[in-house]
Every structure is written in structure tokens, then in C-alpha cells.
Amino acid sequence: MFYFKVILFPLMLLVQSIAGASEIKAVKVSVDLSKATWGDSIWKDVREEAVSLMAQPIAIPRPKTTQTSLIRVQAVHDGQWIAFRLRWKADEKSEAGKLGHFSDAVALQFPVKEGSPPPIFMGAKDNPVHIFHWRAQYQKDLEKGKPEMNELYPNMNPDMYPMEFKDSGNIEGLNNEKREIYSPGKVSGNPQSYEKPSAVDEIFAEGFGSSSVIQNRVAIGHGDWEKGEWSVVIARPLKRENGSILEPGKNSYMAFAVWQGAKQEVGSRKSVTMSWVPLQVSAQ
Known about the structure:
Blueprint: H1 2-17, E1 24-28, E2 49-52, E3 54-55, E4 70-77, E5 81-89, E6 105-111, E7 129-135, H2 136-144, H3 149-152, H4 176-179, H5 184-187, E8 200-205, E9 212-213, E10 220-226, E11 229-237, E12 251-259, E13 271-272, E14 277-281
Parallel strand pairs: 1-4, 1-14
Antiparallel strand pairs: 2-4, 3-13, 4-5, 5-11, 6-7, 6-12, 7-8, 8-9, 10-11, 12-13, 12-14
């Protein structure tokens, strides 16, 4: 444990000292950003910043190489909500589903407390971070419905649940409540096992391994993949009760992470910003 601390803390200090990307400026627009009607016109005159990423270097398992070295960011706000458009290269569109198949994803991270931000790697004890995590898998589930077992594995024979058969025989009373008996995640109340009301999860963390998905999420998002590139918009309220607060005319910080499912990225295997990026929410 002592050896771990000797190595980890100097590395974190070094990472925090690396020069960040240019400041991201959220300009004010007259569009209601909470309505998810983000046409191309609102981004036309908004400056786009290029933010460098690299393979996550600390938490195990770590990725072997950097799969996403750059993400392009634009930001706008309407006085109540703020929206970020995020673009990055992805050779394949990955939406997870079967075991061993992972989803493309992107996350925004904000400090919760005012003042100097916490360690960029998921915050610290009593100094949390607020994360907004969009996944292509969640969006697909919203648009097409959460897939059934027989959709994912149409030729599967063993270990099928009675309700998966078109003809359930003499078994009666099959319903969603009884179905959950066969889903350990749902029985234990794991929020990741249920259908999502949005393609964006809201998460709080106070360091590695402390991530907690909240239930009263309000953030929204939508992504489009075309010609080897994702374009994803994530929108959130400027002021989130018990969470991160962004105010027009004030500066804050943010950070980014990208997962490429086709490259087997999931969990700690991701590309991340190595220092906080300054964020300015314009007053006008």
C-alpha cells in the first residue's frame, strides 16, 4: 500500500500540472435547450475547441493504447440549460448487446464544490465530481426498446426462460414481475439492469470505485454516427440541486472521457483528459 501511494500521488500531481486544452466558452442562445431540438444552426457560429485525450493511465485494467486522441467540443447555454456538442472519430458504430460487445460512449465530468477542482480521476473523498455519461447502447434501447434474450441469441437453446418462448406451454401467469426473478441485477435493484429514461446517466463519484448512478436524472442527450465519426449532444441544467452548479458569468472546469466499444473499451479502459479544462459560461 505504501508503494502504491508513493507512485500514485506524484503521478497525479504530474498529471494535474500538464497544460490543459484551450478554454471552452459556452455562448448564450435563444433556443430552449431542454427540448432536445438542437439543430445545426445553433452550432454554426460557436467556436469549436480540440481537447487532447490519452489512454487512462492509473486504474486497472488500463487500455494498452490510446484509441481516441482528440475530441472536439462546442458549448451553448440558454440561461437555464447548457448543451455540449462532442465529436470524435470512431471507425465502427458500437451499441453493445451480446456478451463481450461493448458500447461507444462519452462522459462529461464537473467538480461539485467551488474553488480548486478535485483530482481529475473521479474526484476524492468529500470532494466529489458530477458525471454525465451518454452511451450508444442506452440510446438504442430508447429508440428500439431493450432487446429480449431471443433477439440477442435467436439460436440459443439452453437456459432460456419460459417467457422467451412464443408458446409457453402450460405455464401460466408469466409477467414482467415474475420475469425479474430470473434477472439477478433487477432483483438486487441494480439501476443498470432497467430501461433508461434517458440516454444519459448521471453519476457521482469520490474517487476510484465509488461511482453511484442517481435515479432522478434530468440530463438528456442524442448521438449520430456517420462516416466514421460520432456527433453527440449532452444537455443538462446549469444548476443541478445537490450537484454541480454552472453560473453565467462565472468560470468552472470540466473533463472528458471516450469509450470505443469496437476496441473493447469499457469501464476503466477509456481515453481521458489528463487535466481539467477551463469552462466559461458567458453572461450574455
